[in-house]
Every structure is written in C-alpha cells, then in structure tokens.
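Page 47, continued from p. 46.
Same chain as before, 372 aa.
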Amino acid sequence: MRKTLPILIGSATLVTAAALSAGAASASTTPGTPRVLAGNLISPLSIDVRASGTVYVAQNFAGLLTKVKKNGTSKVIAGTEGDELGAVSHFGKVVYYATTVQGGPEAPPENPGAKLWRLKNGKSTAIADLYAYEKTKNPDGAKKYGFVNLPDTCAAQFPEENPATYTGVVDSHPYATVTTKRNVYVADAAANAILKVNRKTHKIKTVAVLPAAPAINITAEIAEAQGLPSCAAGYSYRFESVPTDLEIGPGGKFYVSSLPGGPEDSSLGARGAVYTVKVSTGKTTRVAGGFVGTTGLAVAKDGTIYVAELFGGKTGSGRVSVVRPGSGSPKKFIKVASPAAIELWGNKLYVSTNALSDPPAGEITIIPLKKK
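Result:
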C-alpha cells in the first residue's frame, strides 16, 4: 500500500523582490472570466510565469519545455528524448528544469535518472544529479510508513513487494522548483523531501523532509478494495507525504503542496495538504488540509493560498480552491477541468488545465482576480 503516483511518473536564502511580487493579489478576490492563453499541450504539469507575461510550460510526459508569449504564440525551447521533463522555474534570464527517467522505481536499476538542468542562452546543461544524491543520502530513509501496531502474524501475510511497514525507499522524482538568487529549491515527489541546489557550486543539500501523512483507519471495505489481507482491517496506516509544488510566500516563508500516498482521488478521503517550511531549520508545519489531488499552489502577498486540486470538487473533475488567511480549510474558488500547475502574477492566476486529458488537449488558462 505504498504511494502510487500515476500523475507523477511517466510519477535562509536571499529572496528577491521579484520572487515575492509574483503573488500580489489580496484575500478579498473573486474569479473573473477565464480565458485560454495556449492549447494543444501534452500533460502541462509545471508552469512558470515571467513579469512580461511569458509562460514557461513543461509538457512533462512529452519531454518538452515550451515558451508561450503573452500573445499566445509558442516555441519549444528544450527537450529530452524518452524522459519526463518538468519542475520549471526561472531567475532573470536563466531557466531551470528537471528530467526524470519515466517509470520511476521500475526504470533501469543501474540509472533511474533524475537531473536538474540550467537553460542559458539557448543551451541546456545538467548541473545536479538528484538521483545520485537520493541514492547516497535518502533523506526520508529513517521515516517509517505503513501500518501502526499491526500484529506480526498479519504483517507476514503481506507480499515482499508491498510490505505492511517500511522506511523511505531510494527514488527521485523532481516535480517542482523555485529559484532564488543563490539556490534552486526542488520539491522531490519520490524522495518526499525539499532539496536545494546552489546555483554556483551545484552542491545539493536537504532542506526538509515532509512528515508522514496523518494515519487513517483501514476499514474492511478499504482493505478489500486495496487488495490487503482482511486481518489489516481496524488498524491505522501512515501514508507518505508527497511534495508537488513549492512557492515563496510572505516573509520568505516556503509553502509546499502535498499529495498523500496511495489513491490520489477521494476514495480514502480528502487527504491532500499544504505545509510551510522554515528553510533555516527544516521545520515543517501543516497549515491546511482537505484537498483532493493537490498538485500545485500559489501564494499571495497577504498569505492567501490558491491550490490546484486535480480531482477536486463534487464531481472530482477539478477545481482551484482558496485558503484565506487564518483558515486551515479550502473553499471552492473556481471550477476548472483537471488543473495541475498554478502560478500567481499580479492580479492573474495562470493555471494548466485539462492536464491529463487525451493529448493534445492541455491548456494554459488565465483567471483574472477581481476585488470584492
């Protein structure tokens, strides 16, 4: 019952004013009429927005990085053959992105492959081997996941490839980045960690490891649906917390969106969450929960959090939700189809929509923010 990530596989630093000014909207906003900036995209799971209105779009499973100007014209500016490309961000004229060998743990064992790249003056250069770091350090290797206090006789009924309890496995899947003057911060969805890569030395360090998700009770119905031994019913299970996006909010605080391990839809409840991370200490604090398919977030200067819920809403078809300052619960902001990535610049939300629809149906949708 380890995490399953079908959408994520093929799954104190100087903070500039530019990084913070991106989230300029206030809490008292309502959505305006959405418009499509660009379409014909394949799995647009990561985006980044420049002050000029240019959008960088990672077409993850197609292995393409596309630049979309504010008039909607687009151009592929980088690519990788056979691998997944995502986790795009920029600083100045330099763009960063990550590649991952599609297949996750099922990829060739000699080199599953996960790297961070720098795109400068039209040339891409690999600057950090994230899988090699994971293999050496395994930041969540000491964390325990799985059943709590399950009898040994029941645990023995679990297959070796899906044990009743386990510690963090060696796997890397860089899913989002945010770049500052000194570092590129990486949300690694398979390592369950936030990493930083020094832009000059390319040295990698662990910033924080997300805590295990709150334990849930496994009912007889859940056990049957998940193919678990019936003896597991009535015991609690701790899933992994999977970071999917990170943004810099007010005061330089880092915000991280997280999917729970296991089913990403609402079959086990709305278990997605948002955490804050104190970069200097690695301390994580859960600030909001109750999301379904938490794949991206954006943070306004007053602390308002906008979250892309890939499977959110009553129909499970997707929505952007909002968490107002002082509240830990999401409210519907606007219904959109299968949103994956979300960015805030000025008074506009940029959202990748139809992200998992049959290609090429993905779009970049702009949602104006209006004051109440």
